[in-house]
Structure formats: structure tokens, C-alpha cells
Amino acid sequence: MADFSLEVPVSFGHCDPAGIVFYPNYFRWFDRCFHALLQDRAGGHRAICAQLGAKGLGLMDVGARFPAPATEGDLMRLDLTLAEWGGKTLRLTYSGFVGDRTVVEGYELRGLFLERDGRMRAGDIAPLRALLEAR
Amino acid sequence: MADFSLEVPVSFGHCDPAGIVFYPNYFRWFDRCFHALLQDRAGGHRAICAQLGAKGLGLMDVGARFPAPATEGDLMRLDLTLAEWGGKTLRLTYSGFVGDRTVVEGYELRGLFLERDGRMRAGDIAPLRALLEAR
Amino acid sequence: MADFSLEVPVSFGHCDPAGIVFYPNYFRWFDRCFHALLQDRAGGHRAICAQLGAKGLGLMDVGARFPAPATEGDLMRLDLTLAEWGGKTLRLTYSGFVGDRTVVEGYELRGLFLERDGRMRAGDIAPLRALLEAR
Amino acid sequence: MADFSLEVPVSFGHCDPAGIVFYPNYFRWFDRCFHALLQDRAGGHRAICAQLGAKGLGLMDVGARFPAPATEGDLMRLDLTLAEWGGKTLRLTYSGFVGDRTVVEGYELRGLFLERDGRMRAGDIAPLRALLEAR
């Protein structure tokens, strides 16, 4: 059961000369899906950072595999799951489907970045968890 | 009265370090809006090209102005109008609104490109007009 | 005679299913060329804004036409000219060439945006001119 | 020792409202680096596909981690290594540096995709290896 879903109509301009989605676009969609979740649950990235005194909910690690291609005219449903909360990390998983065909499966590992003594470091993730699970 | 409209939720990743939409994204949205119209009215760019023996509905000229900025969390409504059919050109106009604030106004001039004797040239636009106005 | 030039190797991922450059990329290259000029002449956008108390060198108006397509493997030379200084505007013109073939011609109209009483407005452009013509 | 390197000047437009590189851009640079290698060693993706009867050198799996941020004005050197040839796969590794600071480390797993009986499948990778190691 996904925590959030986004519909992505695949357009001509998302595709490359082979006629399939140019892969960096999938990561733009992962990021957009995460920010749409933030908007939906806690007023968006900017509001959350202000509330938590953070610089950003930055990315530490990311990956994806592509079992099948998607192309112009496809309607992809992208599912996000808040998969695992660590001490300083949140692991999100993503699955993209066109009909019942899986076109992408991936993850993002994110932290809550704070500025301390002029340096950025990942802080305790619990306050973000509290915000996102509040409703 | 617009011929087609697209809702564009402005996301964190669409914005630049000044916190406003990085302007080339507006053109990605113009192009996406045009292709969504093609999909809606005549089965999409690929189907239309196959039917008309064309290589593409390519861009000749484009422009935009930006009366006000849009930012993370804004929901933009982008209106497209089939503004003017020439002999070999279609002029599309676009207006983007966040609430009642205009954030972009622009146009695209497009042609129906055919390959003749190994060269690409703009052909008669009437067959495209017939397709798009058919319904 | 151009004021600045950038070499842009056109890559597979810049092109669309028709095999030619997806047009919003040209505007990413215009913007990149402008920022490279800022870096070259006055330490970059961030340093200039800090020095002039500005929020950004934002875009008001932009346009381009595409006399010929560019494709994967082409090496485009993009020329920028500081074409015209107004009271509150700078007009930049751009020309892109692959060999001796012109693939894009366009312009950007930019202002120096300041925050005054919580609103952004275009300020006097003369301090920017002084910086860019200093050397 | 890298098999290929690309210099990437990080521009304003590559960065997000947090002022650091919007992460999908790293994958655009991975892909661009790979295609630049293809150009350098064997005439580019299109020529290679024509020679090998392939549809594309497509992506199966990709990942990256980001030990430190990169920002506007940074010059990143991106190193590519042909890390491992499998029966039907090529594993590429990438490392990006700004000065002596590592900003990204990642990989791509690619295959040589052929169309057989109307379906795409990964073929024997040996002919690609022969081409890329020929010189």
C-alpha cells in the first residue's frame, strides 16, 4: 500500500531518440513525488524546513532499475512508500507502473540537513517523522 | 476561451537558487501542453505523423514574457489557444496563471515537417488543421 | 563580434524522438552562457548580487527561432552579445552555429531585481553595466 | 585510472532553491559522459547501433551517492570507468570531483538492446566491447 501516488503522463519531450523515457526524468519524478507528499502532509519543503530549522531534506543515496521501457503517450502511476526510518535517514521506495507493467523501481535515502558551525550535517530524523505521520 | 488547459504543480526541482521557476521549464510545459492537446484530439504526435506522412510538428519560432514569478508550491494553470493557421504554420499562444496572477505569456510557431528528396521542409498545414478541428 | 562564446556538444539526451534537440534545451544553454559570462567578468551571479544588493539578474522576456535542426554529435558554438543597455534592462542576443549553419538565434531581456518593501522590482541597470564592462 | 573524463561547469540553472545541484542533473551528466565516450571511441551511439544492428545501449540499473554538495560556479571533473563486462551487460562507474572533494559516486548497468520478433531484449555484449576496445 503506497503512502502517496502521482500520475505522470509521459510526453514527447520526456523521450530520447530511441523513443523511450530519457532516464534522468525518472529521478525528477521521484523528487517531485516526494515534494508533493511533503506538500500534502505538512505544507511543503519550505514550511517544513522553517519549522524544523533545517536547510533541506537532502539526498544521500539513490538508485533505480528499469524492467521495461515507457514511451510517449503512456500514463505512469508512481507510488511512493515511506519505507524505513533510521536515526538520521528516511528511506523512500518508488514503483512506477504503466497499466500493470512495472517500468521503474527505485529508492531514495534522505536526511534532514542542518547547518552547524558553518557545516552541513544530517540531524536526527525524528522531528520529520513526527510531522509526516501527524495527520 | 482556451482550446486546452494543463495544470502544472510547481515543484522544488523546477526552481533555481533564487527560489523561482528556472525559465526553460516554461517551454517544457508549453511543449507538453501542445502534445497533450494532440493526444486529446487526434491520438498523439506519433499517430498524427504516421497519418500525415510527416516527420514532426516542429518548432520554428517561440517567445515568452514573465510578468510575475512562480515558486515552489504554486499551482499554475496553463492555457493553450490555437491562435492562427497560416499556409504552412500554426501559431499557438500560451498563458500561465497562478490564481489570478499571470506568470507567463508566450507563443509557439510550428510547422508540419516532411522529408522531400532527403531534406526537411515545412508542408501545407491544412491536413493538421483538419485533424485537430475534426471532433 | 561576440562578447562571450560557449561550446555545446549536443548529446543523445538533449534530443527528442524526432532525433533533434528538444527546444527548451536551447534556453538552458542561453542561461548557462549568460552565467558563464558573469563568472568570467565579475565572479558569478552570487558575487554580483551580493555586491549590488540584488536578488537576481532575472528574465523579463525571451525568444528564439530555429532556422535548422541540430542533432546528436553536433558541436554547437553559442555566441552571446551584450546588445543593448536600457535604463532598467539588458538585452542579450544569442546565435548558435554548427559549422557554418545557424541552428538558433534568440535574445533575452534581463533586469536587476531588488527587493523593496517586500516586493521585487527592476532597479537601475547601470551598476551591472559598470561591473561587466570594468575589465 | 579513468577511461574517459568530462568537465562539467556547474551553473546557476543546475541548482535548486537550496543552492546545490538538483540531483537528476548528475544522471544527465553520467549519460552525457557515456555518450561522449562512445563518440570518442567509435563514432557515437547512432553509428554503433547501425554497425551492430542494435536499437540502443540502454540502461538497466543505475545508482549514486552524494558525499558532498556541489554548487554554482564549481567545476566538476567526472571520471568514467568501463568497470566490468558481463555476458549481456556493461557496468560503468562514475566519480565526480570538485577539486579533491568527491561530490558523486555512481554506476550504470547497460545492455545492447536488439529487436527480435517484435520484442526488445538484451543481446551479447561482446561486439560492443570489441568496438570500444578496438583502438
TrEMBL record, chains A, B, C, D:
Residues 19-104 form the Thioesterase domain. It comes from the Bacteria. This is Acyl-CoA thioesterase. Its EC number is 3.1.2.-. It comes from Seohaeicola nanhaiensis. CDD domains: 4HBT. Pfam families: 4HBT. One of its GO terms (molecular function) is hydrolase activity. SUPFAM superfamilies: Thioesterase/thiol ester dehydrase-isomerase. It is an enzyme of class 3 (hydrolase). InterPro entries: HotDog_dom_sf (IPR029069), Thioestr_dom (IPR006683). The keyword ATP-binding does not apply. Keywords: Hydrolase.
